[in-house]
Amino acid sequence: MAVPVLLVLELCFLMMGGLVVVVESFPFSEADKIAWLPGQPFVGFQQFSGYVTVDDKKQKSLFYYFVEAEFDPFSKPLVLWLNGGPGCSSLGVGAFSENGPFRPNGQVLVKNEYSWNREANMLYLETPVGVGFSYSTDASSYEAVSDQQTARDNLVFLQRWFLKFPQYLHRDLFITGESYAGHYIPQLAKLMTEFNQKEKLFNLKGIALGNPVLEFATDFNSRAEFFWSHGLISDSTYKIFTSSCNYSRYVSEYYRSSVSPVCSKVMSQVSRETSRFVDKYDVTLDVCISSVLSQSKKISPQQVGEKIDVCVEDETVNYLNRQDVQNAFHARLVGVNRWVVCSDILDYELLDVEIPTISLVGELIKAGIRVLVYSGDQDSVIPLTGSRTLVRGLANQLGLNTTVPYRVWFGGQQVGGWTQVYGDTLSFATIRGASHEAPFSQPGRSLVLFQSFLQGMPLPEMF
């Protein structure tokens, strides 16, 4: 679709400090168009990927993967997806393990029938620099990276991404993600609302936060009760885990390299009882066991649930490290030898985790931005009980009355989870049987939740 030259000129003037660039009347995005990903099945929608420079001096370039909606993309909203970590890839985790159009399977890709691009145009961003294919030519860009810097870079990314795709400029925009994106998303959304007070650029309608870190102590200390209630730790260990040293204290000490003897003892006991062979991100799901002696020998894990590959992360790493795949993605490795799921060169300010973002969520609600907090109910890392407590407390603080009382919701003919809605802007939901990465372990139910979120409708009450 041709892009009006005047629109592009207006965008350049707005976002580049008055710099006007003369362009041809075709999309800047054409150079980023993906002709074909190796091993992919035939699809009718377009894909794009490439780089957006967010700091010209340090050549900080963020890598994105954009998938247009499978049906009628011109009428569907734009959704930005962010994974957490901090430092983990939205391409490798979000797109290729959770809600993207394909899943890697050996040398080929298989279609994900529950892909979120059935309902929206999906934009996956590898952020901050140093994550995945994102890079900087200045190694200092990887040092002491903070939430504040990440939010600023993400804002610049969106501003300049619209130069490539101006046809999406006034489209309804939603931001979704999980885990540490509970920090990334509210901080980015806050900057977007502040920018809009000067120049209306972002048509932000809502944010959805999956198993998010919103308030350090509440989120982390709900882990002990989850472990105990699911039989992962004993009564005596639960007692010391809630009295002698809770999890937030341990993490705080660990990040400061000053773990006390009492916390060291408690965590050793907790780790011994929970076992390293249980996936803490889904206590019901088997782990992927790869041989450390021979990379060519792989033990096939038991398949749990419908179409769940617990070794999908290994498959993704292998796929994204193929040269033909990187060529198709217009991607390059700078300063690293391999693409990895979570960055090993990024030095993040981990103490930022202690800064609450639940207050920012409240500010967004006051600004009219819809908020959904959802939890995979088998996740022990950021358990549903902490998220539910924080949402209820925020609703009370804002004076929001319950408009949908706590009830079950349905995905097909089965209970998909539980939900409660406050006012017309704040919702909480669980996804039954889902992990920390809910679209991975419960793709069908997650898609139902995503559909309802985009439509601003309560989750289905009946099947």
UniProtKB/TrEMBL annotation:
Residues 1-25 form the signal peptide. Its EC number is 3.4.16.-. Pfam families: Peptidase_S10. GO terms for molecular function: serine-type carboxypeptidase activity. PROSITE patterns: CARBOXYPEPT_SER_HIS (PS00560), CARBOXYPEPT_SER_SER (PS00131). One of its GO terms (cellular component) is extracellular region. Gene3D superfamilies: 3.40.50.11320, 6.10.250.940, alpha/beta hydrolase. It is found in: Secreted. Keywords: Carboxypeptidase, Disulfide bond, Glycoprotein, Hydrolase, Protease, Secreted, Signal. GO terms for biological process: proteolysis. Belongs to the peptidase S10 family. Probable carboxypeptidase. This is Carboxypeptidase.
